Amino acid sequence: MIRNALPFEKGELEGIFKIELDTPHLTLRNNISHGWGGFSNSQSGFTLIELMIALALGLVISAAAIMLFLTGQKSYSLQQGTADLQDNANFGLNYIVKDIRLSNLNTMTSGISDETAGGGIVFRSISNKKSITSGTPPVTTDYYNLPASLTGTTVAVGMLSQGNTGLSNVNTEKSDQLVIQYKPQYVTDPDDATKLFGGFDCEGNRITVTKVAAGTPQPLNIIVQRYFLRTDTKIGNEPNASLALACDAGFYSDTGSPTTISNYGDDGQIILKRVDYFHVLLGVQNGTNFRYISIDNYMTLTGTRPRILSVQLGALIRSAQSVGSDSMIKDTQKFQVLDKEVTVKTPTAGNSKYVRQVVSQTVALRNTFGERGL
Predict the structure, then answer these.
(1) Which helix (H) or strand (E) holds 80?
(2) Measuring CA to CA, which residue among 243, 97, 246 is closest to residue 174?
(3) How far apart are CA 124 and CA 127, in angstroms?
(4) Is the sign of the CA dihedral 249, 252, 258, 263 positive or negative?
(5) Where are the domains of the chain?
(6) Tens digits of per-residue pLDDT, 58-85?
(7) Other CB atoms within 10 A of residue 259 CB
(8) pTM above 0.70, yes or no
(9) Where do the DSSP E strands lie in the chain?
(10) Distance in angstroms (rounded) separating the CA atoms of residues 268 and 271
């Protein structure tokens, strides 16, 4: 016969488990007692009010954690954009300034104007020569900065220094173009003793010429460099045109009658990425007076134009990386670029925001000082 193996008598199971509803507590009570010493275990849960408070606190803590994450992400994006902008400006602008200081190097005269043959800033070629008639009988004299033998597309007006004609991402104003020229200081090429080495142009090309026999005039190359804004082909989600400041370098011989500027007139090499506006002022001296004037205003002056001693470069640059859609960055913000106050063209709706900053530099043209050749 099968007996009940549990150590309980009939009727004792009624007291083993009891569920008591004692509002507002929900209590599950275990009243199991064993004959060999027995024990009593009582367990109780949260009240309804305690549960609601715990849920509310959890939501608050979760919301705070999400806010911290979003704030940190925004701060990181802003720092990355600012760092990218500063690196771009510091290295790129210093590179440009170093080359512009070379303008007018090893020329016959220290003066620079639109009438100076071989002048360090190129305003005129045979394409837009300046003709002055004077004397009795009348004699007409033509003035240009490049040799008259240079013709064709490489000396077209669009390849010379110009104001307010180039691409830009700002309202009402267009960008400037600056063209300089200089004759490098040549030394024997350390890699090839049969050549002369004059350094590197702004595109990174080695400047070399082949040596000629002793007693024969040594032909050397004049370097021409053009600074301008162009479209960058490597684009992403851009708010406006993806403009970059580039440098295009070429050369022509200082002997004979060169007919073209070699390697000149292409897209050049990008120096500063994401430039919305590029502006140039010329520091001119007229007697004891000195002031800065834009390229287009300089070219509209009547009579003999004043001598140029320095240039000011100004650029409105932006970060390559977006900083999200921060409402602190306004599309209507005004920027002072040298003597021009500009606003960026309104981007397409929904585009992300970018950090923008104006960078400027004044460059003294040391090769224009003194009275050499005047």
Answers:
(1) helix 48-100
(2) 243
(3) 7
(4) negative
(5) 70-368
(6) 888 988 888 887 777 667 666 666 777 7
(7) 13
(8) yes
(9) 17-22, 25-30, 41-44, 130-134, 139-143, 162-166, 175-182, 187-188, 195-200, 206-210, 221-231, 243-253, 269-272, 275-286, 289-294, 307-318, 334-337, 340-343, 356-364
(10) 9
Task: Copy the structure tokens of residue 348.
Answer: 């397409």
**261 and 225 Cβ atoms separated by less than 8 Å:** no
Q: Which residues of the chain have pLDDT under 50?
A: 1-4, 6, 8, 13, 16-37
Distance between CA atoms of residues 125 and 25, nearest Å: 98
CA 316 to CA 194: how far, in whole Å?
45
Name the amino acid, one letter, at 309.
L
Whether 116 contacts 127, CB under 8 Å: no
| Beta carbons of 356 and 82 less than 8 angstroms apart | no
User: How far is Cα 249 from Cα 263, in angstroms, rounded to an integer?
Assistant: 7
Residue type at position 310: S
Pairing of strands 206-210, 195-200: antiparallel
**Which of 318, 286, 322 has its CA nearest to residue 303?**
286
CA distance 217 to 234: 46
Distance of alpha carbon 7 from alpha carbon 288, whole angstroms? 120
